[in-house]
Amino acid sequence: MGINRHTETEGVEVVTVDYPPVNALPSDGWFALADAIREAGRNPETRVVVLRAEGRGFNAGVDIKEMNADVGHTKLIRANHGCFEAFAAVYDCQVPVVTAVNGFCLGGGIGLVGNSDVIVASDDATFGLPEVDRGALGAATHLARLVPQHLMRTMFYTAGTLTAQQLHHYGSVFKVVPRAELDAAAMEVAKNIANKDGRVIRAAKRALNGIDVQDVHRSYRYEQGFTMELNLAGVADEIRARFDDDIAAQKKEK
User: Fold this and answer.
1) What is the pLDDT of residues 95-142, one digit of tens each?
2) Distance (Å, rounded) from C-alpha 165 to C-alpha 167?
3) CA-CA 20 to 30 A from 28: which of 36, 78, 83, 125?
4) Would the pTM of this model clear 0.90, i.e. be above it?
5) For the segment 18-37, what is each residue's pLDDT rounded down to a tens digit?
């Protein structure tokens, strides 16, 4: 359990997220993920990083239980910093990052996927930002890299989701495959990149980041300020409490 990293084949490093049951990462997990991706990219033998996850879904965002157990805002601040570091590690990785998305990709998962270079998804994958339903904001910066502006706004306000097939239509998901073929499909793309000259690939990553139309780091940090404001005002606590009550009610019904 946790963040695991291994060399799959020459030039390809694989970083795996494994936080059962739904890959909702605690604050320490986000920092560990950032470290693993950065270390993989710093390895001079690496030409591409594959980011994947075990379990039912790719990522369910931050661990809300961790935040609810915190009397003050220490865990929230640490989670904010951890998410920022993880998203930045993907974007700033010295080599391209290929992300393999299985099942649900929510909240912080959108930050990881939106900042990656290539997205491959299973045919049961869904993408969304439930932040408004949790009394928070954030990662609209990254959702805007996946869908057109007005659709991003609609998804954000409604906390709605889109399928992998819909994102494939917009061109943000490169390939959609059956769940059993996801890892192989991601590796196929990764090996294609790894076959190139590593010096050129690293230069290409820097060049593409350099011509990006949006400063993703500054944009996301701006969003985080409103999340902190909602927490200081007590709005987020109130909404998260309702969320906990709903979950408890659902468990009783079962």
Assistant:
1) 999 999 999 999 999 999 999 999 999 999 999 999 999 899 999 999
2) 5
3) 125
4) yes
5) 999 999 999 999 999 999 99
Q: Where on the phi/psi map is residue 52: left (φ > 0), alpha (ψ -120 to 50), or beta?
A: beta
Instruction: Fill in the amino acid letter for 156.
Output: F
Return the bridge partners of 6, or none.
14
> Omega before 44 cis (within 30°)?
no
Residue 30 token pair: 């986000």
The one-character DSSP state at 41 is: H
CA distance 218 to 223: 9
135: its two tokens: 């009394």
The closest alpha carbon to 121, from 64, 186, 62, 54, belongs to 186
DSSP code, position 73: S
d(CA 55, CA 18): 7
- CA-to-CA dists, residue 186 to 21, 49, 98, 191, 202, angstroms: 23, 10, 7, 9, 19
What's the CA gap between 45 and 202, in Å, rounded? 11
Which has the closest alpha carbon to 205: 35, 31, 15, 42? 42
Rg for the chain (alpha carbons), in Å?
Answer: 18
3-state secondary structure at position 221: helix
Q: CA-CA distance, 111 to 252, in Å (whole number)?
A: 33
